[in-house]
Design brief:
five-stranded parallel beta sheet; 33% helix; globular; alpha/beta; 7 strands; Rossmann fold
Amino acid sequence: MAIENPSRDEIKDILKKAKRIAVVGLSNNPERTSYQVSAAMQKAGYEIIPVNPTIDEALGVKAEASLKDVEGPVDIVNVFRRSEQLFDVAKEFDGMGAPVFWAQQGLVNEEAYEFLKSKGYTVIMDRCIKVEHALTKY
């Protein structure tokens, strides 16, 4: 199965409705892409929840060790991990109640995609959430 992302209109709708984004692999280093992208999304009004067992906090928010440690509803799980790690993240994502799994630009894993799509989740891969937000301004 080829990976097929939602349309730009669907992505716009996802971003318009979303409030909380859990970011797997968020770094506390301002030089890292995960930090820069998440900072931009935080500035745009989204609540960012860092998910990284190797840091205490990022962007002024306490980091959680894993997705299962995140309290409350999450609208999007945005992933900054290598493509070969996406299936493990997808398995942890499954059942947490978040409707959207988003793998950042350059990240693709067909096994994770097929697993999540078969369970009815919205899956976006190989797209930058910051770029999509800028392109779909509402």
